[in-house]
């Protein structure tokens, strides 16, 4: 069974601070993936999360790093009715988020 997943921005201030500290290599991949998530969030009229299945720059390991750094959360239908909307802090364990990707 496939679940709807959405990557949502956890803390926009942390996003800006962390991106300044990333170098080349993997940092560029993280920045590209995070930019895709943030742009979708900001351009969405409802501030919706980006469906993981539609990410242009999907990379499991990069998403896991962004989760570990506290920059994004991955919501699933397993935890919420509509994973595209982060209605409140859910405190979904990091391991559970990674398992859902």
What does this protein structure show overall?
The chain is of the alpha+beta class and 101 residues long. The chain has one domain (5-100). It contains four helices and three strands, in the order βααβαβα. It has helices spanning 12-21, 26-43, 60-68, 94-100, and strands spanning 5-9, 50-51, 72-76. It has a three-stranded antiparallel sheet. Helix 2 (26-43) packs across helix 3 (60-68). The radius of gyration is 13 Å and the shape is globular. The two termini are 13 Å apart.
Major beta sheet, strand line-up: 2-1-3
Share of helix among residues? 40-55%
Mean pLDDT: 75
Order of helices and strands: EHHEHEH
N→C terminal distance: 13 Å
What is the radius of gyration? 13 Å
Per DSSP, the total helix count is 4
Unreliable runs? none
In the residues, how many domains can be counted?
Answer: 1
Number of strands: 3
Q: State the major sheet.
A: 3 strands, antiparallel
Structural class: alpha+beta
Strand content: 5-15%
Instruction: Tell me, briefly, the overall form.
Output: globular
How is this structure best summarized?
The protein has 4 helices and 3 strands; from the N terminus they run βααβαβα. The protein is α+β, with helices and mostly antiparallel strands and 101 residues long.
Sum up the structure in keywords.
101 residues, alpha+beta, three-stranded antiparallel β-sheet, 4 helices, 12% strand
